[in-house]
Amino acid sequence: KNCPAPKLVVCSCAESGQRPDHVEAYAAGPALVARFARSRKHDPPEVLARILGDPENEKHRRVLEETGTLVGDCLLPTVLMLNPYRIVLTGRLATPIVKEAIETHLESSEALGRIFGGTPEVRILAEEENDYIRVRGAALAVLRAQVHRHLDELYGAPSAALPELFAELTEPITSFPWPS
To answer: What is the pTM for the complete model shown?
Structure first.
């Protein structure tokens, strides 16, 4: 009820001026901040801290649940294909509410139960276990910088042609996997 609607924000892989429909554009810290920011002068860390600091607030809980549902929806094809034993959540949005929403969404999949007999365990990596998370993040940043941001060179196509080239590999988010 009266919960701020999702807003498309720039994801970290976007070129200047682009706003691709990637899950990060809807389900990362900046996306949550954009839903609650009252003006462009907001302080993103403060807004996110308010959301995470009061997860039982009805609106905060709903956006965290929707984040988990969206992440769960995006994970479902991978889970169906790879059947990982465990999904590990890290970072600031690795909260019990997001974890529960992912679990609920994955549990609602008839295919997971039928094919694998159940769903993977969803685990939150506690702060003390996150010692090397920045190293993992740095490795992903290098992968983005050296591969994702050079797809035009790797595929021999101009950047403007890449969305069409990859259209069959990715699906834009055109609707959300929860009732409005």
So the answer is: 0.60
